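Take a specimen:
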Amino acid sequence: MKNNFSRREFLQTASVAAGSLVAANKMSAQAQPILLPMAAIPQQTASSDRVRFGMIGIGMQGSGLMGMSVNLPGVECVGAADLYDGRHTLAKEIANNPSLPTTRHYQELLDRKDIDCIVAAVPDHWHKRVVVDACNAGKDIYCEKPMSHTIADGFAMVDAAKKNNRIVQIGSQRVSSVLCAKARELYQQGTIGDVSMVELTLGRNDPTGAWVYPPPTDLSPETLDWDTWLNDAPKVSFNPLHFARWRCWRNYGTGVAGDLMVHLLSGMFHTLGWNEPPRSASALGGIFRFNDGRDMPDLHTVLFDFHGVPVYVRLGLGTETPELARFMGPKGVMDTGEFDLKVFHQPGIDLSPSYYSSGFPQKMREEYIKQWHAEHDPQLGREPVNEDVVYRGHDWDDMAPHLLNFFQAVKSRKPVVEDAVFGNNAAIACHMANESYFRKKPVMWDAATKTAKS
């Protein structure tokens, strides 16, 4: 897996283009499009046809989302909000508009009639407030993953979206990638049969990948509204590390579960057509490398039960390992990586006489082997040919199609794939993983009370 910063940097600066998939054996592989091809979208749009959005949160991820959005046709950023003043300057730079209205108070964006929707990339402990406020203000919203900071927050966000008939798109981009669409198509075609187990793994091995980010050099109580940034978290003195590295602390973030696991689970949901919390989660892990004051684990392993199907997840910040979602079924294995999709077909039958016959007496064994070959050997020249296929395409973590999906929905009012219900179910799994880790015991999903119980 590439360094995450490099990938983000690439996504922010690369041109937006439609990617084709090509099989490794030179067979063409047409992915079912989920979005209009860029060539089919008017590059010049009338002012009345543009989607105007307000940006809330212009940090590492927010700057990427904003930069990608303003380069989509028919999309315009008309305002930005952040509690840190340095990001007001950054927003103007990204929009290439020195007079772009900026503010510390995101409610000012929600009150504006000329803003159609919101794109939000704020710390997890702000997601509920921003999404609920946006929905109540009549604004559609794209909110970064994970959808919620707690299980209760997620249901409040779902309720706000439904009550106000708002489009909510959660930012796990895999569900809008052509590779994820191809994986879904192959699974629905029965390529591996009914899935019997899933393995999801991802590992990093560098400080930046472990969120050890350098705080802005001018960060201070004068340039940042610290008390407001804390929101409903415990009140503590100004701490630039908490601001820059908020994922490390449970009060603000959801750790590797909310940062990495939710991507893998969302891709799994879309591939398999699932949309539900797991029955149970059993987690192990700890802080093995980054003993820097954080209270979220840097190694997190989880075994989920999704309606009887085991799903194993391993996330680590101390060893680099490739991103992989492995779907296993009786007809074979489907491996989805960061830039490719591999299908390994398995006939699921004996290809030679059973070795159990080694325990037969010689005459019996010889008769069994002779009969087996007579019944199973293919005719000469008609031997079966099994083929493994590799599809290559754009990064599964494909921001541009996911954002375009949202902006198109704002105009068309057609539903998005990763809506509030989908995002909530994926987030619930992450919260259950964290609950199991901190409680040091398995947790079960209680649908009646909408809680995780030990």
Observations:
- Residues 1-43 have pLDDT under 50 and may be disordered.
- The radius of gyration is 25 Å.
- The chain is about 35% helix and 20% strand.
- The domain at 4-174+398-420 is CATH 3.40.50.720 (Rossmann fold).
